[in-house]
Specification:
By secondary structure, this protein is α+β, with helices and mostly antiparallel strands. The chain folds into 2 domains: 280 residues, no CATH class; 156 residues, Mu homology domain, subdomain B (Immunoglobulin-like, Sandwich). The strands form 4 sheets. It has a 6-stranded mixed beta sheet with strand order 1-4-3-2-5-8, sandwiched between helices. It has a 6-stranded mixed beta sheet with strand order 14-15-12-9-17-20, with no helix packed on it. α2 packs antiparallel against α3.
Length: 457
């Protein structure tokens, strides 16, 4: 089951991100300057507050991870395929165990969750509606990222790892989605792999790789055991190109990885509370907001038994809040369009378990367009309601929710925070506020990261 120095694709990409984020940029700076001078530079440089926080966080993490203190540091890496979306980012097809010592990678072992889950006792009841949709009787590692909060997902992943007789004790847990591949190819440019057909670029690589490892290898005299060798070859070629980039392009790659952190395509949890405080301040912890007290939305999908159909799903959100009455009222419309052309090994009719996390004390009055009755719950001070949504191929479906907000939602200085689900990007959103005096204000945006109404222009 275990493969040392694996050529698995996502492992190589995460390692590449680590090298460039913590190694190339920061280590180069430290080699030529002192930590103090770099901190001083950040304090006076003409940078945005977010950029300063990012760089200060990187300095802290690099100091901890690259420090020649002789201590071995071990991390659980979760590889999430967001073509099969889950609340935490995507289906966990594999995981890695990364060991660092004195700033060097001393070991990198990879496990296939399909194999590892066989070691986990079938004793944990799966959350609704996995039993009904996936036909499973027990919850295990591959499906563990079912929460909108990464710390919860990390806890469950580590719990299942230990239930499977895993012996490591982790200093942190890190999750990464397949979007990181696209990020690298945007900077390096398209890549050709000797012995394999086609060119892998930012627009086609994910789909072409899925075809190659599931179907294409059969006509290329490649054995099933070697069908994923293209992934290792592609990863090595992209890393080779990345190392040869010009200084300006390396900085572009560095900034691209930072963007992946802010879009939650990379999420981080450290056991060290000071490191985790830094990560949380930078917004890289994938947390459901626990402190926000105004209006709130966090919309999450879980692809349940729909293959890789998320590649073809187009989403949009429309949210209206009416503050004119005694009790604030909200209408949320979520539209899905399934653009897949045919039902095959890759795509089919789409089925998702959708959950909307809203302010505690909200009350759902009406749902239209869902394939199931709603279920309700509370989590970290938020109310949620969830429904199954089914979208046939080449069809569009809109699900509408009407609910009341708690009376204590501020009317005069209304504000709204929308958090973005990991693994999703560029979701069109229309926001409409009907103010207390009856006037209307509307804003349109592409949801690429967590967003606050009052900060929109």
């Amino acid at each position: 089951m275990q493969k040392k120095h694996s050529t698995k694709f996502w492992i190589i990409f995460y390692a590449g991100a680590i090298l460039f984020l913590f190694g190339w940029f920061v280590f180069w700076q430290v080699k030529n300057h002192t930590w103090g001078s770099l901190e001083s530079l950040l304090a006076v440089a003409p940078l945005t507050e977010e950029t300063k926080t990012d760089l200060q966080t990187i300095v802290s993490l690099a100091d901890a991870l690259l420090s020649p203190d002789g201590r071995e540091k071990t991390f659980l890496i979760l590889f999430q395929n967001n073509l099969e979306l889950r609340p935490g980012g995507g289906f966990i097809g594999s995981f890695g165990i990364l060991k660092l010592q004195n700033g060097n990678v001393v070991d990198f072992a990879v496990h296939d969750t399909g194999n590892f889950d066989g070691r986990i006792p079938s004793t944990v009841e799966p959350p609704y509606p996995m039993h009904e949709t996936l036909r499973i009787n027990s919850w295990k590692l591959r499906d563990s990222n079912y929460s909108p909060d990464f710390s919860e997902n990390a806890k469950w992943a580590e719990t299942f790892y230990q239930m499977g007789q895993g012996e490591e004790r982790f200093d942190g847990v890190i999750a990464v989605t397949t979007n990181v591949l696209t990020s690298f190819l945007k900077v390096t440019g398209p890549v050709d792999i000797p012995g394999f057909p086609g060119t892998y670029g930012q627009d086609n690589a994910i789909l072409d790789l899925e075809y190659q490892v599931e179907k294409g290898y059969r006509t290329q005299d490649i054995t099933p055991g070697e069908r994923k060798s293209v992934m290792g070859s592609l990863g090595m070629e992209i890393l080779r190109r990345a190392k040869a980039l010009s200084l300006s392009k390396k900085y572009e790659l560095f900034r691209t990885v930072l963007a992946d952190l802010h879009t939650k395509d990379i999420q981080i949890l450290f056991k060290d509370p000071l490191l985790q405080e830094r990560v949380a301040a930078a917004g890289w912890d994938g947390a459901l907001d626990r402190t926000w007290r105004d209006d709130y939305l966090y919309l999450v999908d879980a692809n349940l038994n729909s293959f890789k159909t998320d590649y073809f799903i187009k989403r949009s959100y429309a949210y209206t809040v009416d503050l004119t009455g005694e009790i604030p009222r909200s209408t949320l419309a979520v539209t899905y369009r399934n653009t897949a052309q045919v039902r095959d090994w890759f795509a089919k009719d789409y089925q998702t378990f959708f959950r909307a996390y809203v302010p505690g004390g909200s009350f759902l009055e009406k749902v239209a367009g869902a394939a199931s009755d709603p279920v309700y719950g509370e989590f970290l001070g938020k109310k949620y309601f969830g429904v199954l949504v089914q979208v046939p191929i080449q069809m569009e479906k809109t699900v509408t929710f009407e609910y009341t907000l708690p009376k204590n939602i501020e009317r005069e200085w209304y504000d709204l925070k929308i958090q973005k689900q990991p693994g999703l990007s560029d979701i069109p959103v229309t926001l409409t506020v009907i103010k207390k005096d009856g006037s209307r204000e509307e804003k349109n945006l592409l949801l690429t990261r967590d967003t606050i109404w009052s900060e929109l222009k």
